[in-house]
Amino acid sequence: MHLLFKICLSFIIFSCMNISLLRLICIVQFALCGYMAVSSFVYIFDAPGWHSYASFAAFCLAVYLVSFVLQIIYKNHPDLPLSIGQKSAFNRLFILNFFMLSVLLSYNINDVKSISGLTMQEASSAGPFFYAAVLLHLLTTIFQVYILVSMVRLRRILNRNFEKKSLDLDILAG
What's this model's pTM, rounded to 2 decimal places? Predict the structure, then answer.
């Protein structure tokens, strides 16, 4: 588990900005978080409490973040800077998604506690749905961190490309 974490962290930090990969991860994350938001919404009626409301809000926030990133990619990439409204929405979403990460990390910590507390007999009888849920939480966390890091990189790239384009136009005009 520790090795997997190191590999994922190095992938997130040292990978170059790839718009196609970001689009793919955003689409997969949209599906994963949409599914988890619907599951959390159903869970509100089964066992209402602060946890079900918080997880529903967090996964809806993640779905909104992914749609916002896709909107930026399609409307602004490669050289159109963010508008003032987009910048303020970007900043709010970036800060609010730390709430999302805290919910995802709580799921991951709970999963690790559940797995470490299992005996061999319980682990073999846990079934594929338990391990699928653990993998789903881990993938969602990895994708969420990748999307947050890519958001900052995308914003920097858009500003840099716009400044470069403006400078090129000024040189041509002068």
Answer: 0.79
